[in-house]
Every structure is written in structure tokens, then in C-alpha cells.
Amino acid sequence: MTNITLDPIHHVLLITPTELPEADEFLFWAKLFLHQPDIAIVEELEGADRHQTRFSYENSTFNINFEHYTDSIWIAPEGAGSQEQLINLSKYLLTSFQ
């Protein structure tokens, strides 16, 4: 089971899957994780130590990140409007995974 935790201080959603994806599999993992009716993938970026998938939800843009060195996955809002939508995204994702 994947845990999704809202961090209100840093304005991110912390994602803790049962099993972390390998670095070279993250973009595929992110596509599966974000495969929801109200989410559209905008862009995929692959870096040396961080991968990122940008997506939209309810006319707001977010990014899901995977950092190799810390094995961390988190979702961050892009802009103030998206930050306000973060709690709704959290609820949507939690409902989707029940």
C-alpha cells in the first residue's frame, strides 16, 4: 500500500510506496501512480540524481519527484493556486487508492 502524507509546513505530499521503484523505472512508476481520470501528465524529466513528472489536476500544475540519493518521492505544487489545491489533490489520491 502506498502512503500519502500532507506536509503542511513544506507544502508537499510525501509519497511512501510499499516498494520504491528503481531509479530507471520511476517515470513508468509515476505514469501508473498518476493514472487517474482527473490527472493529465504534462512533461517527464529525467536527470542524473532526480526524476520528475509534471502533471495537472483541476487546472493546477504539480510535479512528482524521485530523488535517488535519499530514495524520496514527493509531490510539489507549482505556484500559489496549485498550493491551495494540494489538499484536494491529497484527498483525491487517497480516495483513488482505497
Automatic annotation (TrEMBL):
Listed Pfam families: DUF3630
Domain of life per record: Bacteria
Stored InterPro entries: DUF3630
The protein's name in its UniProt record: DUF3630 domain-containing protein
Organism from which the protein derives: Pseudoalteromonas citrea
